[in-house]
Amino acid sequence: MRIDKWLWAARFFKTRSLANQAIEGGHVKLNGQAVKPARELRIGDSLDIVAGGAHWTVTVRGLNEQRRPAVEAQQLYEETPESSARRALEKEERQLAPVPGSDLRGRPTKKARRQMRGFSEGY
């Protein structure tokens, strides 16, 4: 089975084209080596996946040509304990130190726009 199709079926990416872009961008490694999207995947292979800011290390446990519900998709792979611990730590760090400006919603007010313009123009 093609690696890009498996990543889509295992629900790491929403579309196959996003999976292709991630593979070509070097965000997916098969057994520690960069691959092409058409590379054949076998049960027992190890994948390093960087998707959406999360780093996964998984072992392929099953192949499925179709995209199935999330419960069934999770049976296609087994995440390593180190990977799950790393992702939990990253999640905790994001909660403790959110991205600056993440609490802002919608358009800035007139006063806020004036402050931003004053800051950028230096007065």
TrEMBL record:
Ranges of Basic residues composition bias in the record: 107-116
This protein's record includes keyword Transferase: no
Pfam families: S4
Region (Disordered), start-end ranges: 75-123
Key words of the record: DNA-binding, RNA-binding
PROSITE patterns referenced in this protein's UniProt entry, alphabetically: S4 (PS50889)
Sequence ranges of Basic and acidic residues compositional bias: 84-95
Top-rank taxon, per record: Bacteria
Family matches, as SUPFAM superfamilies: Alpha-L RNA-binding motif
Domain RNA-binding S4, chain residue ranges per copy: 1-67
Family of this protein: Belongs to the HSP15 family.
Protein name: RNA-binding S4 domain-containing protein
Organism: Aromatoleum evansii
